[in-house]
Every structure is written in structure tokens, then in C-alpha cells.
Amino acid sequence: MAKKKAKKAGKKRKPNAAFMKPMTPTATLAAVIGGSSMPRTEVTKKIWAYIKRNGLQDKKNRRNINADDKLKPVFGGKSTVSMFEMTKLVNKHLK
């Protein structure tokens, strides 16, 4: 049983190619992160940088994001979204 664990620990994890494929943001999302094509991972990083820079994370429940005027159209008109729901809503704005 110890041999099996040693084999798994030795394997290096490969990045998923689907996450690294450049995606083009829609005009509403481009207003927040910029219009150039980038992988999904980079889109998420830029959105979080925008949220932190503008202090949009809810003070009491840190898992919620309060949308400002730029993020509201991206979030489908919702004023507050959970961080898990955010990913789903942002994916609708990527081609």
C-alpha cells in the first residue's frame, strides 16, 4: 500500500489545456478586464484584481461580491453574487 502512494506523489500534474486556451471577452467583460484574448485563469485573476482594487468584496460575508456599475452587466444585473456563482456568470461572457 505504501508503494502506491509513492507512485502518485511522484507524478507531476499537467495543466488542463482547456483552461489555457485564449478566450475573447465580450464588450461588457472587456470594460472590466481589457479586450485582449487571454486564458480563463488570467480572466479570473484580472477580475479578482478589479474586485480587490475597488473594495467590492462584502465586508461581513467575504464570499460575496458587491457589483459596481461595470460588473453589474457581467453579473446579469445582480447586485450581489457569490464567488462560486461569479465564475459561472463570467464564463457566459467568454467566446
What does this structure look like?
The chain has 95 residues and is mainly α. The chain has a single domain (21-91), classed as MDM2 (Orthogonal Bundle). 49% of the residues lie in helices and 6% in strands. The protein is built from six helices and two strands. The chain has helices at 2-10, 17-20, 27-33, 40-53, 71-74, 83-91; strands at 64-66, 80-82. It starts with a helix and ends with a helix. The model has no long low-confidence stretch (mean pLDDT 88).
List keywords for this structure.
95 residues, mainly alpha, MDM2, two-stranded antiparallel sheet, 2 strands, 49% helix
How helical, in percent, are the residues?
40-55%
**Cα separation of the termini:** 45 Å
Estimated share of beta-strand residues? 5-15%
Work out the count of structural domains: 1
What top-tier CATH class fits best?
Mainly Alpha
What's the CATH architecture name?
A: Orthogonal Bundle
Question: In DSSP terms, counting alpha (H) and pi (I) runs of 4 or more, how many helices?
Answer: 6
Mean pLDDT: 88
| Structure class | mainly alpha
Integer-rounded radius of gyration: 17 Å
- So what's the overall shape? globular
- Reading the helices and strands in chain order gives HHHHEHEH
CATH topology type: MDM2
